[in-house]
Specification:
The chain is of the alpha+beta class. Helices cover 36% and strands 25% of the residues. It holds the Pfam family Kinesin.
């Protein structure tokens, strides 16, 4: 059955005592009282100001992580006005251990699950029967331009959003770092966080001025029937959207005004995509994903191949009534989106591996012959590498082919990165 995008009500920490919101966790409803009428919204989960981060994770995110380990794509995104608690909820800011948000909890769950799978394989005498590779990317959309937070000096024109033949959206030119432990992934995240664009506004001392997407990628290789190799890939987007803003309320001028305009335009485009997907009467042959960079990057997550959870963060302050109502309407529309998550896998038979190996051997031999006049024995080095390649086992050749034609491998340390093709 197709999964629904799941709006979830979050809550900022510091709220004003003059309230306009009634949240009922049991009935999963939120009522907004205005001067003229009262409007109620129904959600999959409603959590009030006293809800702990663990409750949010266990009720709405943990199942997405388990599906991700099995090979399904997943997305968690937080939406709401500036200062409503999105960054706190996602865990993209420094907090106490018990207050850590969705992102660090997802990281922990991923590596705990992989450790359990490895232990189970060893207990069954099948150690190494399936190999898992974890890597990550960290991007931001700032003024509708994609920036690589792991290589912030990369010219933006070298980063391009592409839809591959399998329907997957990827960013060509973006760094991808392989990590072997939770600590290494945390190190990569902190490295990218230092490059995020933030700024001061009247509503938030450190306001996110960009949309940020931290992506965990998982690749599982195992033996298929008939001796072939099976590759299963999945990705997990954790999205911290910049807050919806009113420029007058923020006191935005100059650069801050330009940032606010671009933030609101991106969120408007996202709202248009959600409206198009959530309205059964509309023609889905044209969904305006290309109207902004953020909607293009999230194309898989909205109406595509992903399990997606949307966390709508609101304020109970009466002065935020208009923004709160807009956020609830936004999330209400998102509930109608139907995604179709499927496991993406590729099986390569031994004959195909041998054919690809032969093609690669010919290619390397050609380069070696052309480089015979290279200085300092470069050609000899290439020929030595060619001899070594000829001795590789098929699974090692597959890994090498993935380096050349697919997602290249990289060292586990952040200072050594690979570039996605």
């Amino acid at each position: 059955m197709p999964d629904e995008v799941k709006p979830l009500l979050g809550q900022e920490l510091n709220w004003h005592p003059q309230l306009c919101i009634e949240a009922d966790s049991e009935s999963r409803t939120v009522a907004v009282a205005t001067r003229h009428h009262r409007k109620s919204f129904y959600f999959d989960q409603v959590l009030g100001p006293d809800a702990e981060q663990e409750a949010v994770f266990s009720s709405s995110v943990v199942d997405l992580v388990d599906g991700f380990i099995q090979g399904l794509n997943a997305t968690v995104l937080a939406y709401g006005q500036t200062g409503s608690g999105k960054t706190y909820t996602m865990g993209t800011a420094e907090t106490l251990q018990q207050d850590r948000g969705m992102l660090p909890r997802v990281m922990e769950r991923v590596f705990d699950a992989l450790a359990q799978l490895k232990a189970a394989q060893e207990a069954e005498g099948q150690a190494g029967s399936a190999k898992y590779e974890v890597s990550c990317q960290f991007l931001e959309v700032y003024n509708d331009e994609v920036r690589d937070l792991l290589q912030p000096d990369t010219p933006r024109q070298q980063l391009s959003i592409r839809e591959h033949g399998d329907g997957q959206i990827r960013v060509s030119g973006a760094a991808e770092i392989i990590v072997g432990s939770l600590e290494e992934m945390q190190e990569v995240f902190h490295l990218g966080s230092q490059a995020r664009t933030v700024g001061m506004t009247l509503m938030n001392e450190r306001s996110s001025r960009s949309h940020a997407i931290f992506t965990i990628l998982l690749r599982r290789t195992s033996r298929a029937e008939g001796g072939g190799l099976q590759l299963v890939t999945s990705k997990f987007h954790l999205v911290d959207l910049a807050g919806s803003e009113r420029t007058k309320k923020l006191g935005a001028r100059g650069l801050r005004f330009k940032e606010s305009v671009n933030i609101n335009q991106g969120l408007l485009a996202l709202g248009n995509v959600i409206s198009a997907l959530g309205d059964p009467a509309r023609n889905l042959s044209h969904v305006p994903y290309r109207d902004s960079k953020i909607t293009r990057l999230l194309q898989d997550s909205l109406g595509g191949n992903s399990q997606t959870c949307m966390i709508a963060c609101i304020s109970m302050d009466h002065s935020c009534l208009e923004e709160t109502l807009n956020t609830l309407k936004y999330a209400d529309r998102a509930r109608n989106i139907k995604n179709t998550p499927v496991i993406v896998q590729k099986v390569t038979q031994p004959s195909e591996v041998m054919l690809l190996q032969a093609q690669l051997l010919r290619l390397l031999k050609q380069h070696a012959q052309q480089g015979q006049h290279d200085p300092e024995g470069a050609a000899e080095a290439r020929m030595a590498g060619l001899d070594l390649l000829a001795q590789l086992a098929p699974d090692a050749v597959w890994d090498l082919l993935r380096m050349v034609y697919g997602r290249p491998l990289a060292a586990a340390r952040p200072e050594h990165v690979s570039v996605a093709r």
